[in-house]
Amino acid sequence: MGDLIEEWATQVAEAELSSTLPRRWAHTQGVAKRAVEVSQVLGQDAGLLVAAATLHDVGYAPRLATTGFHPLDGARFLRDEHGAEERLVRLVANHSLALLEAEERGLWEELASEFPLLEEPLLVDALVYCDMTTTPDGDRTTAKERVAEILGRYGDDSVVGRFIRRAAPEILAAVERVEAALAAQPR
């Protein structure tokens, strides 16, 4: 996979996000940078992680927002318009504990049946890590600060607020697991 998929992912994400949602594009670029930084723990899946990080928020693009749930809209776009590889599509569909938010939105069955969660814990955790340690402007942050920022932006009683409060313990655990894997890497 490697460089070609990463290049393709950047072209697709930039085309969909850079002009219509420049802040989302900045976040996406920051998440992709985190993916490059952590990719050594994934071996042959490094390119897949970088591509998923680059495409994780593509479903926010206004022309793609059919359900209003960006993981599902993005995954459908990648599958239907680009014929993207199944593992990539499933990572985008399920990034950052999306099944919990899908449940809040009444879309759990749709997401779970159409795009089952990958049984690759380190790969799934790595994408959570990249997304949840990157600010909306693409800068580095801690997972705790990112969860607090999301709560502040959406509010406690919103769909996203309820989701992020439920997801926070698993987000923090996923980040810890990736940090432990990174620390175990030879220097």
List keywords for this structure.
single chain, 187 residues, mainly alpha, 67% helix, 0% strand
Number of strands: 0
**Secondary-structure class:** mainly alpha
| Outline type | globular
Number of helices: 10
Q: State Rg.
A: 15 Å
Low-pLDDT ranges: none
Q: Calculate the mean pLDDT score and round it.
A: 96
End-to-end CA span: 25 Å
The sequence of SSEs as H and E is: HHHHHHHHHH
Helix content: 55-70%
Instruction: Characterize the main sheet.
Output: none
Please write out the topology.
Elements (H helix, E strand, L loop, with lengths): L2 H15 L4 H17 L7 H10 L14 H13 L3 H8 L4 H7 L3 H7 L6 H12 L10 H12 L4 H25 L4
Helix pairs in contact: 1-3, 2-3, 2-8, 3-5, 4-5, 6-7, 8-10, 9-10
Structural commentary:
The chain is mainly α and 187 residues long. It has helices at 3-17, 22-38, 46-55, 70-82, 86-93, 98-104, 108-114, 121-132, 143-154, 159-183. α2 packs across α8 (121-132) and α6 packs antiparallel against α7 (108-114). The longest helix has 25 residues, at 159-183. The chain is globular and about 45 Å long.
